[in-house]
Amino acid sequence: MKKIICWLCFITIVLFLLSIGYFEKWFVLKTSMILPFKSIIASGFGGVLYLFRSIYINKCVKNQWDIKWELWYYIRPITSVLSGIASYIFLKAGVLILNSEMITPTSSYGFIAVAFIAGLNVDKFIAKLEDLAKSTWGIDKSRMNKEK
């Protein structure tokens, strides 16, 4: 568990340094890439927050820490970041609907907030995308999200 906490602290520090522009001397973002970059960072923070909470709940509250979930703690930040990228693309394309009306964020804060939520709850976000794909294009849900 200590390795996982170190991994999550490392990811958090990297995300924080990226968010304050610490690495700007190594790469320069075009203006059009700033919002996707912020979405990636926000989704990463959402995923790390979820994982820290998960450690707290499973170890301290429920006392049911299980080593078989260790790989999940290493992979989850990556899936969170990928969900943030997807949220940006779907919002930018105007395909993702936030409620019953067609609403897309008009400011960068909307994109960042949705990316954070996508990173925080990857499972629900993917289920939402699969619902969207089913209703829009008739694509069935994946086997992982089909109702049993």
Query: Which structural class do you get from the secondary structure elements?
Result: mainly alpha
Give the DSSP E fraction (strand runs of 2 or more residues): under 5%
Biggest sheet statistics: none
Domain count: 1
- The portion of residues assigned to helices is 55-70%
What is the element string, with H for helices and E for strands? HHHHH
Shape annotation: flat
- Mean pLDDT over the full residue set: 85
Helix count, DSSP H or I runs of 4 or more residues: 5
- The N- and C-terminal alpha carbons lie at a distance of 33 Å
Please state the CA-atom Rg, rounded to the nearest Å: 17 Å
Number of separate strands = 0
The stretches of 5 or more residues where confidence is low (pLDDT under 50) are: none
Ordered list of secondary-structure elements with their pairings:
Elements: H1 2-19, H2 34-61, H3 70-92, H4 108-120, H5 122-137
Helix pairs in contact: 1-2, 1-3, 2-3, 2-4, 3-4, 4-5
Describe the protein.
This protein is mostly helical and 148 residues long. It has one domain (2-134). The chain is built from five helices and no strands. It has helices spanning 2-19, 34-61, 70-92, 108-120, 122-137. Helix 2 runs antiparallel to helix 3. The two termini are 33 Å apart. The mean pLDDT is 85.
At a glance:
Helix content is 66%, strand content 0%. The protein has 148 residues and is an all-alpha fold.
Characteristic key phrases:
148 residues; mainly alpha; flat
